[in-house]
Amino acid sequence: MANVDIEMNPVDFITVGTVGPKGKRIFHLQAGLGPQVVSLTIEKEQARALGEAIDDLLEGLQRDHPEQGMVSVNMNRMTMDLRDPIDPQFRVSQLGLGYDQENDRVILVAREMIIVSEGQDPELAEAGVVRLWATRQQMRALALHTTEIVKQGRVDPQSNGRLLYYWT
């Protein structure tokens, strides 16, 4: 497998979306720059944690750098749908966030989940990496949208993947 190393600086769009019915949804993190679109498969819990982490990062930036102003987003003007083709580069094992104050950009780094097969040398397995640079406004929209997408799941998330018994 070729080692994926993609950097989009800055992205034209960044979003999280799902494919499939409730209970069987597959979550995707997707971004694009010009004609290039990159899709990554993430877990629902990663999506939830990403939305919270972005909120925390942006609140911290506002507190530490009030001169930059509040980040507000009109979600009615944002297109947060997944774009075709939704052909994931890889499944994500780790997500990280950072901030470049000089360029006023937030970076989202996604690292590939590596599954070493029997007989494969783990030292030779290199995880792919995707680095997505976005504005604070794009990241605020991503956080808001991701929170809504996660909430659209089953009414009782405790039932995810579990067999429930009902007695009559």
Summarize the structure in words:
The chain has a domain at 7-90 and 137-154. The termini are far apart. It has helices spanning 44-64, 136-151; strands at residues 5-8, 13-19, 26-33, 36-42, 92-100, 105-112, 129-134. The chain has two helices and seven strands. α1 runs antiparallel to α2 (136-151). It is globular.
Average residue-wise pLDDT: 89
The proportion of residues in beta strands is: 25-35%
Task: Using the CA coordinates, give the radius of gyration.
Answer: 18 Å
Low-confidence stretches: none
What is the terminal separation in angstroms?
Answer: 53 Å
Q: What attributes does this structure have?
A:
single chain; 168 residues; alpha+beta; four-stranded mixed beta sheet; three-stranded antiparallel beta sheet; 7 strands; 22% helix; globular
List the helices and strands and how they pair.
Layout: E1 5-8, E2 13-19, E3 26-33, E4 36-42, H1 44-64, E5 92-100, E6 105-112, E7 129-134, H2 136-151
Parallel strand pairs: 1-7
Antiparallel strand pairs: 2-3, 3-4, 5-6, 6-7
Helix pairs in contact: 1-2
